[in-house]
Write a structure and sequence with these properties.
10 helices, Arc Repressor Mutant, subunit A, two-stranded antiparallel ribbon, 2 strands, 6% strand, mainly alpha
Length: 247
């Protein structure tokens, strides 16, 4: 019979999994700095939540908390005082059925109220942006149908939605890309997409930035062609964007 050889990696993984895990709100980790919470204070909160979830200890002493952090008792006491002053932590009294008397516990009600405010603001911003996207979608859709002289196909409609919602191109930039495709005489979604991708690559997010980028491009082209900064290249409507946005 083959001798059993323990797989230490597997056993470690099993022990790690069976030891449990601590649940933390993602919003807290992402937005703690907005609440004025320092990294040391955040680590303290995490340990307090760990003790609450894993050991049902709701009022850990500074001595116990200091054992898990690179901080002494006085530093822990100062961190707790800071959290109370910032109104993310408070000490409240709660009836303990086992002890038949009230006991003090740490409450994070203030922290959750502040997180709820951030969450509500984020949701409101998302709703406003969604409304703006829908409003912009209608304008862009109508402009495309007008220039193409026909109804757009479902795939073309999905492409416009992807530009606005997934790629986060502002409606005015999509309309500017359409304008350049019309001037070039190339009413092609792939060509319009290549224009938008080039703007994104150059980090151009406004019409003003795009116009400035094109102006500098043609200045360089003029200098290459004549060797003089004041030289000008005459272009027809179809040639205007021929060099800068190659199809």
């Amino acid at each position: 019979m083959k001798a059993y050889k323990p797989n230490f990696t597997a056993e470690f993984a099993m022990d790690l999994y069976s030891a449990g895990s601590v649940v933390l709100p993602e919003l807290l980790l992402r937005c703690y700095s907005q609440l004025g919470i320092t990294e040391m204070e955040l680590v303290l909160i995490i340990h307090m939540w760990r003790l609450r979830q894993m050991e049902q200890e709701y009022y850990p002493s500074p001595e116990k908390l200091s054992a898990f952090m690179a901080a002494d008792k006085s530093t822990i006491e100062e961190l707790i005082a800071n959290l109370i002053e910032k109104k993310v932590l408070e000490v409240v009294r709660q009836d303990d059925e086992s002890l038949k008397r009230p006991v003090e516990i740490y409450s994070f009600r203030g922290l959750f109220e502040k997180l709820a405010e951030i969450w509500a603001c984020e949701r409101a911003t998302q709703s406003r942006r969604a409304g703006e996207t829908l409003e912009g979608l209608g304008e862009v859709y109508q402009a495309f149908e007008k220039e193409f002289g026909r109804l757009l196909s479902p795939m073309e409609g999905e492409k416009i939605v992807a530009w606005l919602e997934e790629d986060k191109f502002p409606p005015e930039l999509v309309l500017e890309a359409l304008k350049r495709a019309v001037l070039r005489g190339i009413l092609n979604f792939n060509y319009i997409d290549s224009i938008l991708r080039q703007w994104a690559k150059k980090n151009l997010r406004t019409v003003r930035e795009i116009n400035e980028y094109e102006r500098k491009f043609y200045e360089r082209q003029n200098l290459k062609g004549s060797g003089q900064r004041t030289a000008k290249v005459n272009r027809s409507r179809k040639e205007k964007f021929k060099d800068i946005y190659l199809s």
